Amino acid sequence: MHAQVFISLQFLAAIARWLVFSTGRWLCLALLGLGLSLMAHSFVVANPTGGVQPPLSTRGADIIDARGQSVLLRGVNWFGIETELHVPHGLWKRDYKEMLAQIKSLGYNVIRLPYAVQSLRSTTISGVDFSIGSNRDLEGKTPLEVMDLVIQEAQRQGLMILLDSHRLNNQRIPELWYGDGFTEADWINTWKLLAERYKNQPNVIGADLKNEPHGRASWGTNDLATDWRLAAERAGNAILQINPQWLIVVEGVEKNVPGQQLQHWWGGNLEGVRRFPVRLTRKNKLVYSPHEYGAGVTNQPWFNVPAFPKNLRDRWEIGFHYIAREKIAPILIGEFGGRQVDAVSKEGIWQRQFVRFIQEKKLSFAYWSWNPNSDDTGGILQDDWRSLETKKQALLNTLLPVATMAVQNPVAIAPPSSVAPPSTRPPAPPPSRPSRTPVPPPSPRADKRLALSSRIQSDWQTGFCTEIVLQNLTPQIQRGQWRVAFTMGQAQIRHSWNGDFSRQGTRYVVTLPSWAQTIYPQQTVNLGFCADKRGTDYQPRQVELL
User: Fold this and answer.
1) Which residues of 177-216 are buried (b: 16+ CB within 10 A; e: fewer)?
2) No. of helices (H) and no. of strands (E), the chain
3) Under CATH, what is the fold of the domain 43-399?
4) Which DSSP string do the residues of 425-492 spell out, in sequence order?
5) Thinking of the domain 432-545, which architecture would CATH place it in?
6) Pairing of strands 332-333, 364-367
7) Domain range annotation of the chain
């Protein structure tokens, strides 16, 4: 993304935020011939990607894991290492582990993590409030060591990482893979360093070789100075010599493709693949990755023709989707996003159409962006770096999976909500490793329309967090003024999400919000709270649907 980024460095050291989200909720496996089968697993080192068995490879239009099962990558871009701060953004507001947990809790399974060659050569970082929870781990670390810790925590939480060479210097996106004071050797050698460094880190699944080639960049011209297809082969094969397990992700260009039919975004033009495919030493490691945006980024000519929006699908077929349709290689939409998701504005119409296209074609994606401080697109998070852009997440929820916990409790992504931050910090921060101790089985009422389950997500010395889940197991839409009740003794709720909690003695009643009054088939609604312990009898009991 070439948006100008606005960064606030006003650290709120005295008002640290505390919130724990689900860290082991789901993973999506798209099983060939059986459609979309969804399951989640407890995240342990032996299962570092939440159910996917690395390494990943390709088969026709599919990305597959080591067992040959198709995998849909559903991700976000969390940028910042490629900027002058040299760390993922938002750490002036929040704990990095908490940020990863929230990404996981929403149903995403991969993070596209941008970096700059200049950033990884630096020895300093900024933009981190080290007084916030686990951010203390980052103090005194280099940018590369911060990347290590983010990747390791992502593994613990069952998130995959796609590394993205976003910039050469930490100021702008260059046209080519060299320039801005760096050579092709600098670019390739950085990839070789990362391939060696993370070759035994199974949740690092691949290399997005260069972000958004544009301008002079060409495809199929055989000009060694500008032909991005040839440069991608050189870099991709150099990486595979060191780390043959990675996916090699190749973006398109903007123009300069022999015989191209359309205008394109930076990195969006893959028209040349049919005549001039990328040739890797390992053919089953290649993934093509276009970028796509709406009129909110630039009001391109194709948004202003009478055929809009009916012209969009033909554009996407010509520009990149023929690659998957003809089973040449898989497609991963490396970036798409925008502020508007309504049914009236050009950007909103485009974004709705594109999400529907991704859903219909079963494409992998990484949304731009998790960050709210992308000037022309905004993000999934609001400016407080905690609350969700609810309408945007509601649209993306149509691409995210329902899941089933390994303990047979139905769990999945929550419908969108803005989670209010707590007013005070608890006596101690959440632990680095959440508990997997389940809550005793619930006692649902005799209503077979909705399944009810609960579990303790995290449990530490002074507090804990609990998740309660409703799932519609019927083929019909279920509507109602849903309320959940439970008993809890020696605990005090500090903050909650997705419900209005009222208390009378040890009995609590939770009224679900208005958006949760309609629950579609197989949809789940999850709510929950974090609480301070006031004794040993703190676990919620007698959880039931009223």
Assistant:
1) bbebebebeebbebbbebbebbeebbbbbbbbbbbbbbeb
2) 9, 27
3) TIM Barrel (3.20.20)
4) --SSPPPSS---PPPPPP---S-TTEEEEEEEEEE-SSEEEEEEEEEE-SSS-EE---EEEEE--SEE
5) Sandwich (2.60)
6) parallel
7) 43-399, 432-545
Q: Dihedral of CA 113/110/234/260: which sign? A: negative
CA neighbor of 30 nearest in space, from 272, 328, 364 = 364
CA distance 146 to 99: 14
Cβ count within 10 A of residue 263: 14
Structure tokens at 126: 């900024």
> What is the value of pTM for the model shown?
0.69
Helix (H, G, I), strand (E, B) or coil at 536: coil
The tens-digit pLDDT sequence of the chain (546 residues) is 544 443 333 333 333 333 333 333 333 333 323 232 322 222 223 345 557 889 999 999 999 999 999 999 999 999 999 999 999 999 999 999 999 999 999 999 999 999 999 999 999 999 999 999 999 999 999 999 999 999 999 999 999 999 999 999 999 999 999 999 999 999 999 999 999 999 999 999 999 999 999 999 999 999 999 999 999 999 999 999 999 999 999 999 999 999 999 999 999 999 999 999 999 999 999 999 999 999 999 999 999 999 999 999 999 999 999 999 999 999 999 999 999 999 999 999 999 999 999 999 999 999 999 999 998 999 999 999 999 999 999 999 999 985 322 222 222 323 333 333 322 222 222 222 222 122 233 333 334 578 898 988 677 777 888 889 888 888 888 888 889 999 999 999 977 877 889 998 899 999 988 777 788 777 778 788 888 899 988 999 999 998
CA angle 25, 429, 163 (to 5 degrees): 50
Q: Give me the catalytic one of 98, 212, 233, 389.
A: 212
Distance CA 505, CA 488 (A): 9
Among 335, 347, 389, 467, the active-site one is 335
What is the rounded CA–CA span in Å between residue 390 and residue 392? 5
Quote the radius of gyration of the chain (alpha carbons, Å): 23
Q: Judge whether 511 and 481 are in contact, CB under 8 Å.
A: yes
Q: Is the dihedral of CA 519, 522, 523, 525 positive or negative?
A: positive
Strand-pairing partners, residue 493, are 531
Active site residue 196: no
What is the Cβ-side half-sphere exposure of residue 188, based on CA atoms within 13 angstroms?
15
* 335 is annotated as an active-site residue: yes
